[in-house]
Amino acid sequence: MAMDPFDFPPELCSRPLALIGLTGLDTLNNAVHRTIWDAFSSNRRQYRAPVQFKLLDPAHEFPPMKPKRTSYDWYIPKGILKRNWMNKHLNEMPAVVVIFYELDWDDPFWNEKSIECSSRVQSVRAALEGRSTRIAVILVQQTAPLPTGEDMLAAERAAALCTSCELNSKSLFVLPHGDHLQGYTHRLENAFYDLAQNYYHHESRNIKAHRDHLNKTTHQYLFVRHLFKIGFLNELKQDGHTALKNYTQAYNNVLELRLVDTNALEVKTVAGFINYKLCKLMFQLSLPRDAIAQFRRHTDLFKNRIGPKNLVFEHHAWMSKQFCVFGDIFDEAIRQGLPALQTQHPGFYYQQAAQHAADRKEACLELCKAVNVYPEPDPLIGMEHLEFYGQRAWRPGKLSAEPPDPDKEKLGIVALQYQEKHLVNHSMIIIGLLGSAITQFKTYHCPRMRRHLVVQMAEEYYSSRDYGKALTLLTHMLWDYRCEKWWRLITNILTLALNCAYLSASIHDYVVLSLEALGTSSQFPFDQKTRIFNNFMKVLKKTAPDPEPDVHEDEMKHARDLWITAVNAEPLEIAVDMSNITACVESKARFTQPQYKADQYVEIEVFIRSSCPHPLQFSRLSVTVNNPNYSSEFAVCESSSQEAHASGNPLLLFRCNEVRSYVCRFLPDVQDVGKEIQIGSILLHLGSDKERSAILRFNGTGAETATSDGMCPELQHFRQSPQNMPDFDNVRPLSTTEIISRDSKLKLDILHAFPALLGEWYPIRITLENEENHKITGVSANIVLQTSGDEPNIEQSTQLCEDLTAESMPVPVILSVGDLEKDSSTEKCFYLRAHRVGNRNIAVKVTYTMIIKRDSERVENSCVKEEMINVPVVKPFDITAKFFSLRFEPIAKTFAKEPFIVMPYVNCASPCPLIIEDSSVELSQQVCSVDAKLESQLQSLRLKNGETGAEAFCVSVSEPSDQPVALGIYTLKWKREGSNGLVTSSSVTMPTVRVESAPLYVEMILPAHGWVRTPMAVSYHIHNYTTRLLQLELSMEASDAFMFAGHKQLKLRILPESVHKMDYNLYPLLSGLVALPRLRLTISDEIDMPIRQPQLTELLDRSLPSHVFVMPQGKGNPVAIKVVS
Amino acid sequence: MAVCVTVIGKENSPKYISCLNPELDLQFQYKVHTSLDVVEEKLSSVGKTSGDVRELYLGLLYSTEEHKIFGYVTNTKIKFIIVVESSNTLLRDNEVRTMFRKLHTIYTDVVCNPFHIPGDPIISKNFDATVKSIMSGNA
């Protein structure tokens, strides 16, 4: 492809950088020079000075200097902008030439070397004769320099060198190549940049000086040229604002040029260049609005300056280029951080560029129709080497005013037209631009604009005969437009897509598109639909369809060939997914119920509506049903006879707008119980299997695009529908249903006598009675303890078991029952034990299988019967214990080694009477029983609700303790009245008692009663529990009821931890409950006693009985009582 | 005055399209359809900033060399789009607003018709006639 004459030259588009020439560096052979060059030239980062370095060899020749013109009086310019000028200043003509020379201040051969250095400077200066290029010298030195002013030798020699080189002292630099090379080069670079700016400033002033010599009549071109040059030099100087000012003036001067056919190309080319520079600078200077305004002005001004009529395409190409390039600059500015808007972004410019490219193509088609021969000799020869931008190769440098040679002109135009026609791929240009625009519109949230552009792109692909790509794009776009129901646009796209499908003989697409085109949503007229229908039927009959209208003749033949092979190509079945298209056949399907029992027939209603204008005969209808594991297919209304099949099943013949409903019934698979099944798809076969057939696959929910429009389904009821047909619009699809297990006819009774008592094995009896019509097998009851929210750890406090003799089983307990004949029953029992009160919820789930006959087929059917029971658990007893002294007075504390009485009270809280089998006390270590053997006093006691039983044990505690002493554990063995054998033992911890120490203990041994006038022996045991000798005085007070023999008054000394016994004989005088003579103890030695008198008195009161019962004397001989003698 | 008047539904499907020149129907439909991008963007940005009563008139959506496209959105998200020729400099913002207000009024009449199913394309002689008069600038 020939280079587009409007492509912008690279020198225009590159960023202008000041050019610095470096000479005297031998980078090939000298490593030091190499590193210096690398330090300058590589790693050009953003923050470094905007300069470009060029390595010059010693004998470099600069572009020749043109002779200076003193007067412009007779000068007539040949063109506006020279092609070589920009490149010259960018890449060839350095602003600064830097001469490197290796020389140390203390070099032994200083004189010789300094002379050589100055001669080098001179030779460079000679090469630059006449130019104002700045010259700088860098001495490459081995040693690091001393601070300024300290090295006298250096200062002196530097001055000398400057003089000999005729160099400004500010242009002499020193570069020590040891450390910190980067730092030195960085600073040098900035120094060069300053020199360069200086140079460019000087150059631009030079050009400005010429302007005074120009006149408006003949030098209009020069005004433009000079201003452009000044602008460009200022750009090199990095002075954007001045550059912008000069470019603006240059642009205004371009506008003043008289535009005629001969110079149109040149003027527009230059105008485009200047506009490019302007816009780019404006964006760089953060003036995006100005840039856009400038571009608008530019296009407005030039859109009607078409130029030669025969080359209109050139104008469009130029316009297209302008827009495209502006899009590029805009895009670049955005990448640099400029914010863009949805309504103002590069996409619009690319779109316009594409539009102009399309205009160009159109113009080319029209203008270049007849051009088929390239003229000889080539009038375009030398196009690449013209002196000026935008001129014609056959008349270079001719002033525009001169009348052109008509023959040459004509040949040139023909050549251009030939090139335009044969060498330019318009479609690719348009598609490329559209692609850029599409990307931009996507970025700026314009999905619809993007779609429109994609359609345009597809149209372009179509016209470039790439039908496959066009079809792909179109089918994607169809979907989007369909969502928003722009039927008119869809019809348009469908037309094109059908053309593509026909021309590429893509049967699948052709079928899908035809189905959609025949639907109500497409707005094809009836005769078109008829044509499409006939073609569609032809495809199904394995013949080629008629060509689409307005298909190009040349293409038609090719397409026919394609169809000849395509009609017989495998596969013969075409699967069409109908869920995404709005075709002429619609379908909805629903389950009639949201749940089905396992033994019920599942019913699926299928509704089909055809909106095809011609009758449609389907060959087969089937429904696939999916469940989580597999899918099954059910045929609906299969015609039984072969004959009917041949002529077409009348049940599957649809006239226009006819709606039919079908019912599909099947029994659910037993394995689906508890699962959800789903209508997978509805399959409609069109055409016969022998020929080509299209399988239309619906998802059963109908074309539910209607709901996407926010349309309330309720409103559909207002729509009129034919009386004699199902109301298709109001069918609510129900695509899933649940299969639940059948109702079991097993009778399940659960017997138990609640409440359950804490700790007992509580029997629960279940009775199963088979009321099914068949024998059931594999019956098993699953007993599960339901956890409840309030009591999360209920499993840990509950046990379940089937057999009391065996270990308790982990939940869930499974009781296997085996088989049950019809009408027989069985009973099972299981036990529950709770260790905490509260409610227990127990689920009893009986599962079994049953063989039933279904469709003359034996089907195993599993059934479930579930029952819930609630068992409240209550305490059987409330057990409390009380403490008494030996005199049966309630006490709160006791004393070590003093006996006292414990009485457990058992209060029956169970609602049913309980039998206490036994009770026992297990005393703790420091407690011992006073009696040798503790015998239960509650054995075989029957307690009803609210009744209390009590027993008493006499115990003593061996040691005093600061802490209350635990007495032990009280255990009851009990059962429900009437229950056989199940004895439960419940234990409680008895309450604690405070035990204090007592130093002394007096025990009185006394018969249970005495007889009047019969002596009775009494003894007092005085225990000293201390480790000290106790001295006490004892006195026995006289009593009216008794005479007694023994010590009346005595001084006692009781050894540590010993017992003193005192014996008395009492002789009762009175009968009845009489007071005993009182024993008194007093402390004889006050000082050293571990016990005080009040304590002692309290002790005696507590431990000695005060009364004894004396019986009257019996008749006859009294029994002699042993008396202490 | 206007060259194309359209009513677009809540979910951006066309409910009514009328062009002065029926031959350009397709071109206008594409234009109107693409202008919905701007409408959507405007609606979404308005929704974020303020909760108070929205200005129904959206103003100029975008303009091309030949046409200017104006938009208006009712509170129920029904969009009215009017295309005018760029060369028609007589048309001020106020006139466009007036056209929209008229359109809104007659649209309300259509929706109030008990035989009109909301969401269906508008088929009404009266509506047609009023739209024609709006387009010709006589209304």
From TrEMBL, chain A:
<dbReference type="Pfam" id="PF11817">
    <property type="entry name" value="Foie-gras_1"/>
</dbReference>
<dbReference type="GO" id="GO:0005737">
    <property type="term" value="C:cytoplasm"/>
</dbReference>
<dbReference type="InterPro" id="IPR021773">
    <property type="entry name" value="TPC11"/>
</dbReference>
<dbReference type="InterPro" id="IPR012880">
    <property type="entry name" value="Gryzun"/>
</dbReference>
<feature type="domain" description="Trafficking protein particle complex subunit 11">
    <location>
        <begin position="264"/>
        <end position="518"/>
    </location>
</feature>
<feature type="domain" description="Gryzun putative trafficking through Golgi">
    <location>
        <begin position="913"/>
        <end position="1080"/>
    </location>
</feature>
<protein>
    <recommendedName>
        <fullName>Trafficking protein particle complex subunit 11</fullName>
    </recommendedName>
</protein>
<dbReference type="Pfam" id="PF07919">
    <property type="entry name" value="Gryzun"/>
</dbReference>
From TrEMBL, chain B:
<dbReference type="GO" id="GO:0005783">
    <property type="term" value="C:endoplasmic reticulum"/>
</dbReference>
<dbReference type="InterPro" id="IPR044760">
    <property type="entry name" value="TRAPPC2L"/>
</dbReference>
<keyword id="KW-0256">Endoplasmic reticulum</keyword>
<keyword id="KW-0333">Golgi apparatus</keyword>
<dbReference type="GO" id="GO:0005794">
    <property type="term" value="C:Golgi apparatus"/>
</dbReference>
<dbReference type="GO" id="GO:0006888">
    <property type="term" value="P:endoplasmic reticulum to Golgi vesicle-mediated transport"/>
</dbReference>
<protein>
    <recommendedName>
        <fullName>Trafficking protein particle complex subunit</fullName>
    </recommendedName>
</protein>
<dbReference type="GO" id="GO:0048471">
    <property type="term" value="C:perinuclear region of cytoplasm"/>
</dbReference>
<comment type="similarity">
    <text>Belongs to the TRAPP small subunits family. Sedlin subfamily.</text>
</comment>
<keyword id="KW-0931">ER-Golgi transport</keyword>
<dbReference type="InterPro" id="IPR007233">
    <property type="entry name" value="TRAPPC"/>
</dbReference>
<dbReference type="GO" id="GO:0030008">
    <property type="term" value="C:TRAPP complex"/>
</dbReference>
<keyword id="KW-0813">Transport</keyword>
<dbReference type="Pfam" id="PF04628">
    <property type="entry name" value="Sedlin_N"/>
</dbReference>
<dbReference type="InterPro" id="IPR006722">
    <property type="entry name" value="Sedlin"/>
</dbReference>
<comment type="subunit">
    <text>Part of the multisubunit transport protein particle (TRAPP) complex.</text>
</comment>
<dbReference type="InterPro" id="IPR011012">
    <property type="entry name" value="Longin-like_dom_sf"/>
</dbReference>
